[in-house]
Structure formats: structure tokens, C-alpha cells
Design goal:
Number of strands: 16
Strand content: 15-25%
Largest sheet: 6 strands, mixed
Helix content: 25-40%
């Protein structure tokens, strides 16, 4: 490499300026790779070195091919899940899903020549941990930070994990408030299922699998954490995530397959979608904590108000959550009580700042306050 050397005179002093252009290929010094950011220099090791070398060669981690595994080794159930969800979402045609597994992987860009990429094994192999340690999801229920009550691990392909994690969370770990609309049972969970699903899927596609640490979900009575190792673009912060931004998945081949299955949105709208779903559900937007090599998302459940309410008033609150535009007359019919009783209950809830009516009487809507 030829460098530019200039002799300058600044403030009466002679200065030599040496300009070294960035090398398109990684260069080592005595077998070591160093990375400079600002005024500091860092020795690259482990996953940071792996990602640096892959970036310089134009590859992503999930696009590297694996030896000693073939299409015949992949899992039938995982392909069935993909077919079912892709048809449901309409992201792939029925003719596409009549292809052989080999042809489908080719269409999804999961082959490197005739070899399977890491993404293909993660997505469709029954036991990807044979090659990629830590490629599963760990879930735990905590009374306090130091008191783990019970836990589960969801193993298998990413298709299987995506299919089972949310069901496990909402059948075993989260408790719903129960109400009835006539004879119809209505369950209201502390967190919107679609928002949690989007967050879990985002964690799976952005996971830095080279670290060997699983995606972790910590459940409490009033909050839920989802954390995963990741590699952020330079200078990204929690504020960057909450703003309009490009879609930059760490594992683009995995992300593309999740998109084709209808699991996720494209164009970097995942976080925007999660925030909107939380607002509609009446809970706060999730909070993000961004570290250099991992991210944690926090969902907070609605904080109960310390004002006594009877069972009928609880039913009114649940009905308002389900339909903010519900009228006093409709509440009277739904709960089979007089209009006078409903109006008295609504007045009690308003005086105690548990609910608020926003807008004109006839066209406005109810809001349940924190």
C-alpha cells in the first residue's frame, strides 16, 4: 500500500501528515487484529474478531456454510411449520411451497453452492446445537431477582422455537384476568401477545449465536424481560432504536426466512409495531437497555390502583379495555344491571381517577388510567 505524506506548516511549525486509506482486507500485526475507534485501540478477540473478519470478506455470520450436514438431515416438522405460516401470511405462493426442500432452501437463499448455510441449519435442523452452542430459548419465572421459582428451555430449530415459545409463555408463565361477555370467556393478559411475539422473534433473528448464550426471557408478576446477545451498528443507542431506522438484521438470511413465514415485519418496523400494540393495550411502551454486546427489553404490566373496586366495577374496567367506545347503556345490557347502577359505578371510577372519558359524550372514548 502507498500512503500520502505531506509537509505542512501550521502555526509556524512544520508538520508531517501521513494519510493511510482503509484497507479493504483485514491486516494483522504479528498475528493479531486491532481495531481503532476514536483515540482508543482494541485488540479484537472472540466473536468481535469473527464479526470483523466476516464483515471484511463481505459475509454475514449466518451465511457461512457448514460441513457434514445435508438437506436430508433437516427436520420435516420445521418445514411443515414454515409451509403453514407462509401460506397463512401470503408471503409465498402455494406453488412455491410445492417445491422440494432443496429447491425451497435455494429460493430462500439458504444454500452456499450445494452446502447448507448456518442459517439453514438453525432454521430447519432438529438439533442445531450440535453445531451452534446456545441456540435455544431459556424462560424463567422469578418472584424476585434472586428467587427463581421455575424454568423451561425450548430447544429445536428456530421454526420450532418460534412456534412454541409464545404458547408456553401464555399458558404457563402469564396469568390472565378473566371476564365474561354473556357466556363467552374473555382473557386479558398483562402484556399484549402480538407485541411479545414480535419482540421474541426480533431477539431470535438478531441473536449473536457465535457467543453461545441463549435468548433469555425473565417473567415476573408485573414485568417481563427479553434479552439477547447482538452486534449493533456503530454508535447505535436505545434512542436510535426508538426512531425511524433502516432494517439491519445481524442474521439477514434468518430474517428473510422469518419474513417469508410472516413472523416479522420488514423495513425496521418491528419496534414501532411493538410500541403501538402496547399503547393500544393500555400499557407503557417497552424500555430498552443497550450494552455493547447485548440488548434487554422490558415490558411493564399495568400498575393497579389502590382504590377498592367491587366485582361489577372490575367487569366494567375489563369491558372498557376491550372496547373503549362502549356506552353506559351497552354496559347495562352486558352486565344485566340498571342504567342507574352503571352510571353510579362510572362516576365512582371517574372520581377516583381510575377511568377518564376523553372527547365529546357521544363520540368520545374511555381510558383506564394507570
Amino acid at each position: 500500500m502507498i500512503v500520502d505524506v505531506d509537509l505542512l506548516n501550521e502555526t509556524g511549525l512544520d508538520v508531517i501528515r501521513i494519510t493511510v486509506d482503509e484497507n479493504p482486507y483485514p491486516v494483522n500485526y504479528k498475528g493479531e487484529y486491532h481495531y481503532r475507534t476514536g483515540s482508543t485501540k482494541q485488540l479484537l478477540q472472540g466473536s468481535a474478531l469473527t464479526n470483523f473478519l466476516l464483515k471484511k470478506t463481505g459475509k454475514k455470520w449466518d451465511s457461512v456454510s457448514l460441513e457434514n450436514v445435508t438437506v436430508d438431515d433437516l427436520d420435516r416438522e420445521s418445514f411443515d411449520i414454515f409451509h403453514r405460516e407462509a401460506i397463512r401470511s401470503g408471503r409465498m405462493s402455494k406453488d412455491d411451497l410445492k417445491l422440494s426442500n432443496m429447491e425451497l432452501l435455494e429460493k430462500l437463499n439458504l444454500l452456499d453452492g450445494t452446502m447448507l448455510k448456518r442459517a439453514a441449519v438453525l432454521l430447519f435442523h432438529r438439533n442445531p446445537e450440535k453445531w451452534i452452542t446456545g441456540s435455544f430459548v431459556k424462560i424463567g419465572f422469578f418472584e424476585t431477582d434472586a428467587d427463581l421459582r421455575y424454568q423451561d428451555e425450548v430447544h429445536g430449530s428456530l421454526m420450532i422455537q418460534a412456534d412454541r415459545v409464545i404458547d408456553l409463555l401464555y399458558t404457563k408463565y402469564l396469568t390472565a384476568e378473566i371476564s365474561y361477555d354473556n357466556i363467552t370467556r374473555i382473557e386479558h393478559y398483562p402484556f399484549p401477545k402480538d407485541a411479545v411475539r414480535e419482540a421474541v422473534f426480533n431477539a431470535l433473528i438478531h441473536q449473536d449465536f457465535s457467543v453461545g448464550v441463549p435468548v433469555q426471557i425473565s417473567v415476573y408478576k408485573d414485568k417481563l424481560y427479553i434479552s439477547n446477545d447482538c452486534v449493533f451498528p456503530a454508535n447505535w443507542t436505545a434512542d436510535t432504536l426508538m426512531q425511524k431506522h433502516r432494517s439491519l438484521p445481524h442474521n439477514p438470511d434468518i430474517a428473510n426466512t422469518f419474513f417469508r413465514a410472516g413472523f416479522i415485519e420488514s423495513w425496521g418496523r418491528g419496534i414501532e409495531k411493538i410500541c403501538n400494540l402496547c399503547k393500544e393495550y393500555g400499557i407503557a411502551e417497552p424500555e430498552y437497555t443497550v450494552h455493547p454486546n447485548d440488548i434487554m427489553m422490558l415490558f411493564k404490566a399495568r400498575v393497579p390502583v389502590n382504590v377498592p373496586v367491587n366485582e361489577r366495577q372490575k367487569q366494567i374496567l375489563l369491558s372498557i379495555k376491550e372496547n373503549p367506545h362502549i356506552t353506559a347503556s351497552q354496559l347495562s345490557q352486558k352486565l344485566d344491571v340498571t342504567d342507574k347502577t352503571i352510571k353510579r359505578d362510572l362516576q365512582y371510577l371517574k372520581v377516583n381517577k381510575i377511568i377518564e372519558h376523553v372527547g365529546p359524550d357521544k363520540t368520545g372514548h374511555w381510558e383506564v388510567k394507570e
